[in-house]
Write a structure and sequence with these properties.
The protein is mainly beta and 193 residues long. Helices cover 6% and strands 49% of the residues. 19% of the residues are buried.
Amino acid sequence: MDIEVWMKGTDLAMIRILSPAKDKGILFLKKKKEVWCWYPSLERSIKLPPSMMSQSWMGTDFTNDDLVKESSILQDYSHRISGDTIIGGRPSYIIEMIPLQEAAVIWSKVVVCIDKKDFLELHSRFYDEDGKLVNTMNSYDIKTMNERLIPTRFMMTPSDKKNQQTEMLYRQIEFNININDDFFSLETMRRMP
């Protein structure tokens, strides 16, 4: 699957599917805590309820929430450094994130490993309400793209599906592009080719 993504801060995002042909033109719009999907074959947008955030995104091992980050890791979780580790030769912090009581999030706990030098997310584990590991994400192929050092390959592996994983690659990325807030609208979704 090929996708194109526009993001502005943490509140605005648009994702357009470029291929495969059967999904081409499907769009996802995130505005703050609301998410819509545009289906060109139906010429209709559908608002995704919060209950769908934990479901698979387009049949992948990523959730709807993973792609649009409806929940804010800074605002919705408490954080605590629980240790140190080395990932891919990079000394890293182990950070345990527990959701705040009032937060509407899909995970009961997230454990993230952040590189101490460049603050890159290298490894994450996502747990359900029973404390059971659901998904593990690893980041690889750290490169400079558009003058920023970032991981360019991500592997999401579900705990309950043997020999299954979803790989996401960044082929091209641009930062600090001036995008008008009006771009992130249902009207833009309807007009996009």
